[in-house]
Design a protein that fits this description.
Layout: E1 17-26, H1 35-55, E2 59-65, E3 70-76, H2 80-89, E4 92-93, E5 96-106
Helix pairs in contact: 1-2
Organism: Mus musculus (Mouse)
Pfam families: RNase_P_Rpp14
Protein name: Ribonuclease P protein subunit p14
Length: about 120
């Protein structure tokens, strides 16, 4: 019986940035945030989990919709896991329970323009 050799291959993305489509959901309806408050919420989530080092990560809000509380974020690829984990563990804003939903993540901004799961074929 021949021995099987396995090789571990790790792919490191050459992209400098990753893009995230996220949505903030509150348990109560009627909570509104402007883009500055939303950005501060992101920085607070990073600070809560990773301290000042996390808060210093460069996160850009490329688009923001105040009605749906959804945004497209740009983060340096090295900070993607930190941002994602801090958003996952974030749970309250001004004593109101909330949760971030990560809808899509891609190293390509164009990939976030559509969702194949919602595509309607004729």
């Amino acid at each position: 019986m021949p021995a099987t050799a396995y090789e571990r291959v790790v792919y490191k993305s050459p992209s400098e940035y990753h893009y995230m489509k996220v949505c903030l959901e509150f348990q109560e309806h009627g909570v509104g945030l402007n883009v500055a408050q939303f950005k501060q919420l992101l920085v607070s989530a990073l600070r809560d989990l990773f301290g000042e080092v996390g808060a210093a990560l460069p996160v850009d809000v490329l688009t923001y919709d105040e009605k749906t509380l959804s945004a497209i974020l740009r983060i340096c690829s090295s900070g993607l896991v930190k941002l994602w984990s801090s958003l996952t563990l974030f749970g309250a804003y001004k004593s109101k329970k909330c949760a971030f939903r990560v809808i899509q993540v891609s190293p390509f901004l164009l990939a976030l323009s559509g969702n194949s799961r919602e595509q309607v074929l004729d």
